[in-house]
Amino acid sequence: MGEIFGEVKVGRKTLIEKDAKIFGPAIIGSNTYIGSGCIIGFPSRGELRKALKSGSLNFAGNFKKPTEIGSRVIVRPGCIIYSGVKVGDDVEIGHGAILREETVVGRESMIGSRVVIEGFSRLGEKVSAQTGAYISMYTEVGNRVFLGPYCLLLNDKYMGRKPYRLKGPTVEDEACIGAGAIIMPRVRVGRGAMVGAGAVVVEDVEAGAVVVGAPAKPIRR
Prior knowledge:
Blueprint: E1 3-5, E2 8-10, E3 15-16, E4 21-23, E5 26-28, E6 33-34, E7 39-42, H1 45-54, E8 67-69, E9 74-75, E10 80-82, E11 86-87, E12 92-93, E13 98-99, E14 104-105, E15 110-111, E16 116-117, E17 122-123, E18 128-129, E19 134-135, E20 140-141, E21 146-147, E22 152-153, E23 170-171, E24 176-177, E25 182-183, E26 188-189, E27 194-195, E28 200-201, E29 210-212, E30 217-220
Parallel strand pairs: 1-4, 2-5, 3-6, 4-7, 5-8, 6-9, 7-10, 8-11, 9-12, 10-13, 11-14, 12-15, 13-16, 14-17, 15-18, 16-19, 17-20, 18-21, 19-22, 20-23, 21-24, 22-25, 23-26, 24-27, 25-28, 27-29
Antiparallel strand pairs: 29-30
């Protein structure tokens, strides 16, 4: 059993490597595996600032939002899962992935190694996010979506140069994003659409369309 700080509920037959750290409040389901070096329930920026202001690094205070990991989940070594994250049943997470605060990952999803999911994002059920995919804050991903290796889903149109309400893309059910593709902020990729590898998507993609290129253009349905 790893190091546990605060109130943590762990289900039956769950295995936690001894050098993993769990910060409560947290709930971990049954038959789940938490790998070596993982950190579960790491405080968000706001929570960390509150802890520093209080002069205590006891992250298990009441100000912290609970983290929920479902049953039959595999969290491979080196992952960091922040507070307020909810991971559904039967999810697999690869080595070194980072799930930031209040992200939701639906059941039976596959999160690859070194995937980064920034805070307040929502992934549906049976999503496959391949190695190195980057999902920015406030992104919505539907069910049965494929996110290819090292694709980028972005949320800041002006790169911090002027005020802008951050909003990531919306990827609807059963869409596929190819390796290395870039989806710009607020773009909607329609249901069942396919975005080719390396494409740069700057405007909405219709349901069922196939788009390629930079900027991406439809080639067929």
